[in-house]
């Protein structure tokens, strides 16, 4: 019997959709069934340039994709300000929702989206690709190894990038009416997710924004950071995100017995190899002329890129729901909501003068 593929519709022609549509074409359990844009010409050109199958339908509106009975699920790479509207409609139309991050402008919007998905019995997942790389699972094994890593004490995460002048003037991520969270919503989403992931998604008790975030002339955040405090065992974390610094995507996790560092956690330097460095029980050598042991490099190879693994996993979940074999996996909505809650707390701390803000689920 031929494998039944999950039929995806894509809402919009954002640049990130090029990468995700490539991932769909690499995935044996996925097919691209339709794409919609506000311009039929733009959607047609996008489908052609990205080698969509000839069977893919092209529409001049987002709504037409959602009305297509041959679409099982939708990928939504629209500006964050449009997520509430279109993710809710998609769920109401019984389409499973793969939503680009940041998933919403605030947790209230996200709760509305998640309620719509739950009411319709459809799967929700945010498109945080690095979560699906096998390297991520290997790093989590290390975090849980009491002999090699011990007790988690601190996590520090960075995502900075220095885009060109066109981005800084025209990209949706610097426009207050499209993505008002700016660097916090885009780059900050990754860094906050990394911290929560390392802490097994236990929310911090408080979040305190760093003073003096940088804004553009429209009031959109270009650079900011915060500290997170769990109020137990001395466990803390920090993150920094920016559109004003050279490209850097690091996680440093510190344990009572060991630590690890990954330099390219968001997008591996090589899409087929993910590396990280770890060390345990380190001591200074005589006269503190060095340390022993030195960190070891771990390399995890894959045959397909992490974004393909993401859509394959989403497709697997959708197939289970569609066949009546499973209910939507609630792990992904919970993880998204916790990430959004921390973003909201950073915004609240900034607005209240950089004081600690309690995080309540």
Order of helices and strands: EHEHEHEHEHEHEHHEEEEEEEEEEHHE
**Assembly type of the shown chains?**
single chain
CATH architecture term of the largest domain: 2-Layer Sandwich
**Morphology:** globular
Q: Quote the CATH topology of the largest domain.
A: Dihydrodipicolinate Reductase, domain 2
- Sheet-strand content, in percent, reads 25-35%
Main β-sheet: number of strands, strand sense, barrel status?
Answer: 10 strands, mixed
The number of helical segments is: 10
Q: What share of residues is helical?
A: 25-40%
- Cα-atom Rg, whole angstroms? 21 Å
Assign the CATH class of the largest domain.
Alpha Beta
Short structural description:
This is Oxidoreductase. This protein has 10 helices and 18 strands.
Q: How are the SSEs ordered, and which strands pair?
A:
Blueprint: E1 6-11, H1 15-25, E2 30-36, H2 40-49, E3 57-59, H3 62-66, E4 73-76, H4 83-92, E5 96-99, H5 107-120, E6 124-126, H6 134-143, E7 152-160, H7 165-170, H8 182-198, E8 206-209, E9 214-215, E10 221-229, E11 236-242, E12 248-255, E13 258-262, E14 273-280, E15 283-284, E16 291-292, E17 296-301, H9 306-322, H10 331-351, E18 357-358
Parallel strand pairs: 1-2, 1-4, 2-3, 4-5, 5-6, 7-11
Antiparallel strand pairs: 7-12, 8-10, 8-18, 9-10, 10-11, 12-13, 13-14, 14-17, 15-16
């Amino acid at each position: 019997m031929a494998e039944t593929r999950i039929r995806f519709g894509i809402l919009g022609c954002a640049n990130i959709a090029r990468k995700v549509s490539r991932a769909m074409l690499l995935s044996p359990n996925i097919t691209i069934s339709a794409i919609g844009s506000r311009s039929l010409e733009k959607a047609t050109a996008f489908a052609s340039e990205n080698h969509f199958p000839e069977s893919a339908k092209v529409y001049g509106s987002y709504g037409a994709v959602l009305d297509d009975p041959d679409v099982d699920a939708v990928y939504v790479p629209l500006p964050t300000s449009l997520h509430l509207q279109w993710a809710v409609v998609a769920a109401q139309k019984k389409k499973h929702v793969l939503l680009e991050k940041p998933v919403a402008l605030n947790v209230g919007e996200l709760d509305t989206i998640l309620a719509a998905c739950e009411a319709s019995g459809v799967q929700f997942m945010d498109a945080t690709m690095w979560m699906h790389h096998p390297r991520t699972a290997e790093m989590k094994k290390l975090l849980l190894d009491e002999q090699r890593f011990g007790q988690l004490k601190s996590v520090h995460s960075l995502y900075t990038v220095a885009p060109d002048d066109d981005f800084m003037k025209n990209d949706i991520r610097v426009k207050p009416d499209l993505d008002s969270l700016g660097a916090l919503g885009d780059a900050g989403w990754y860094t906050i997710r990394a911290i929560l992931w390392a802490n097994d998604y236990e929310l911090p008790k408080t979040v305190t924004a760093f003073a003096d975030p940088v804004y553009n002339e429209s009031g959109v955040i270009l650079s900011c950071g915060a500290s997170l405090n769990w109020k137990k065992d001395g466990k803390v974390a920090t993150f920094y995100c920016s559109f004003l610094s050279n490209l850097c995507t690091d996680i440093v996790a510190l344990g009572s017995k060991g630590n690890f560092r990954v330099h390219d956690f968001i997008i591996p330097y090589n899409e087929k190899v993910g590396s990280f460095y770890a060390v345990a029980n380190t001591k200074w050598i005589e006269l503190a002329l060095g340390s022993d042991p030195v960190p070891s490099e771990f390399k995890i190879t894959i045959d397909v890129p992490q974004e393909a693994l993401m859509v394959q996993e989403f497709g697997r979940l959708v197939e289970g729901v569609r066949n009546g074999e499973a209910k939507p996996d609630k792990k992904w909505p919970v993880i998204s909501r916790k990430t959004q809650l921390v973003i909201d707390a950073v915004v609240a701390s900034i607005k209240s003068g950089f004081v600690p803000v309690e995080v309540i689920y």
